[in-house]
Design a protein that fits this description.
The protein is 36% helix and 32% strand. With 149 residues, the chain is of the alpha+beta class.
Amino acid sequence: MEIIAYREKYKKDFIELNLVWLKKYFKVEPQDTEMLNGVEDLIAKGAAVYFAVEQDRAVATCMVVPRGGNVWEICKLATDERCMGKGAGSAVLRACMDHAKAHGAKKLMIVSNTVLSAAMHLYKKVGFKEVPIDNMEYERVNIQLEMSV
């Protein structure tokens, strides 16, 4: 498995990996569509996307977006269900965390939903702690996590 920064050839995988879990657990909200389809615009504004690639196929992805004031948001973490448990999700999450730190992040934040138990376990394992929700950008949000870096 190789961890790589965003490449346009994997844009379809970025979109599909995320749509699978969104449709399985929730609904695709307008902000999701905007973020997924506009990934290159977000990267041009400082965001980063990483992929775990196996045999020229993206099996996991994660995005990190600067939110101002040295705060970066981890988002769009998705792993192909057939590849769960191999460390791909953890690897792309850590790549995003490292990217944010290298670009001045002092705090990382995540908004999510506790029904995503694998993601919740991973976030807590790497040091995120629950905080009061102040970002209700999505209907599905029922938890917010943060960590200082």
